[in-house]
What we know:
The chain is of the alpha+beta class and about 260 residues long. Helices cover about 30% and strands about 25% of the residues. A hairpin with a 2-residue loop joins strand 4 (about 90-100) and strand 5. It is globular, with a radius of gyration of 17 Å. The two termini are about 30 Å apart. Cobalt (II) ion (CO) binds near residues 106, 169, 200, 202 and 233. The site of 2-amino-4-trifluoromethylsulfanyl-butyric acid has 12 residues, from strand 4.
Amino acid sequence: MITIKNKVAIRKMEQAGARLVEIFQEIAPLVKAGTTTLEIDQAIESRIKAKGMESKTKGYMGYQHSSCISVNDVVVHGVPSAKVVLKNGDLVKVDVCASWNGYCADMARSFYVGQAPHDVARFIENAQRALNKGIEQARPGNRLGDISAAIQKEIEAEGYGIIRDFAGHGIGKQMHEEPEILNVGSAGQGPILRAGMAFAIEPMTTMGTHDVYITDDGWTVKTADKSLAAHVEDTVVVTENGPKILTRTTAANAASDSL
Length: 259
Ligand code: MF3
Ligand code: CO
């Protein structure tokens, strides 16, 4: 069942989202050559606490960290480590899910260390645009498949790989709620969207094929062909006026209205 959130719940999710945006702004300068992914995770963890939030990943199925930090051919669920030292030319995906007063927001961004070459910049922009196109479909009366199809179309238009084995999800009191939001699908299919539904939409793309595997640590998801991967995620509420993005600044929300 896809839960409909009331105003109070949505307000709490908005607060969670606004705080996540601040955390990303605060840690962005750390995503640079010489920083370890564990240092970034520790900075995220202390900010989550400072803002009165709770990590939803720490303790989740034995996961020990407050973020997932995935570098280059790691697609998602990269485990922060003192051994992973960022260097120029790394493509770094930071993913954080945390709650405020019991309600979650989930957010991921792709960062490039240094000046991205043209083809990589284009690749990252494609993932961002696919996310925007998916979000644009999160409107009452649309179908869940409209979101998936819009994402797929944008990614395939430029020939990138779309990860099939992981997906977005409903979100609320729990990090993962129904429904599963695939990044491939057919428009006009699936449940009808209604105001008050909340979704974490998260395209995961590769510069190669979509095959991935999980490494020995049980978490790290890597591309089989070692190609670079991108990942971006926003938490969105379906409202009568269209999608409301909780994990962007108000200005960015206004900009997304014109997509
Ligand atoms: N934030 C991730 C998501 O979007 C969840 C990571 S699961 C973890 O679903 F346990 F690995 F952290
Ligand atoms: Co998510």
